[in-house]
Amino acid sequence: MSARDDEGEREFDIKWADGAELKEPSARARMLAARWKENPPKPQPFRADPEQRAPRRSSWVSTATVFGIVAVIILVLGYTGFRPY
């Protein structure tokens, strides 16, 4: 038997690996399982809201603020006689 034939037999077969009856969990899964056995985590909603959240302003307030600032800048530049040339 040559070395080439030996390599062919050792080649990884994904179908054989997927067909395994028992699959070992990852190291992280084993670590979390051991930790949670002694101290289980508290249940949390899927997307928990942060406890301290600032109230959200409506979009028109933000839009009006931006347009107001732009208008003030235009008025100040016009009043001072700003010329870009």
Description:
- This protein has 85 residues and is an all-alpha fold.
- It has a domain of 27 residues.
- 55% of the residues lie in helices and 0% in strands.
- It contains 4 helices and no strands.
- It is elongated, with a radius of gyration of 33 Å.
- The model has no long low-confidence stretch (mean pLDDT 79).
Report a brief summary of the structure.
The protein is 55% helix and 0% strand.
Dominant shape: elongated
Largest sheet: none
Query: Which secondary-structure class do the elements indicate?
Result: mainly alpha
Helix content: 55-70%
Total beta strands: 0
- What are the secondary-structure elements, in order, as H or E? HHHH
Low-confidence spans: none
Average pLDDT reading: 79
Question: Which short descriptors sum up this protein?
Answer:
mainly alpha
Topology:
Elements: H1 3-10, H2 14-18, H3 27-38, H4 59-80
